[in-house]
Amino acid sequence: MEETAGRRAQTTRGTKETQITVAVNLDGSGTAAIDTPVPFFNHMLDAFTRHSLIDVTVEAEGDVDVDDHHTVEDVGIVLGAVLREALGTKAGIARFGQAIVPMDEALVLCAVDISGRGQAFVEVPFETQTIGGFDVQLVKEFFLAFAREAGITLHVRLLAGENSHHVAEACFKACGRALRQAVEHDPRVTGIPSTKGSL
Question: How far apart are CA 48 and CA 170, in angstroms?
């Protein structure tokens, strides 16, 4: 990581496919500065940021002439890694968070455990293959990469929904709101919220 201060972190990751810089402030107000070459993904990250109350900056370049996959997945990797770094020892956090978020006819459940065991279980079928030019498979790919690198257990379930845009947006909003709960400091928690003494 290039920078860690308080509950903030920033880093840059460069490969032959992408160049990505991400910064987060866990104690922010949901301010988003998102710049990737994938417009719909920008919209989703903006929704995630607003509802998480985590300040998020993303600057990404990628080989979108090939496919959006590398850019979306790699942003998930870097965002997850920066979140993990910003959490530090995890002392005093609530650890768990959950949200059920409606978006018109769509209804999505998301649950988060800042467990140290990075894994995602995403059961979100889409009615279409794309939203505009955005491949809906990349919604799951983002969450898989993000959860793995963040060291969180993430469950995302579609409870109802038909419109793919609404479904995807409800996923990102629900994840943001669940994460908001999980990263919050709980004044009643002493030390690490685990019987093992570490997360």
Answer: 9
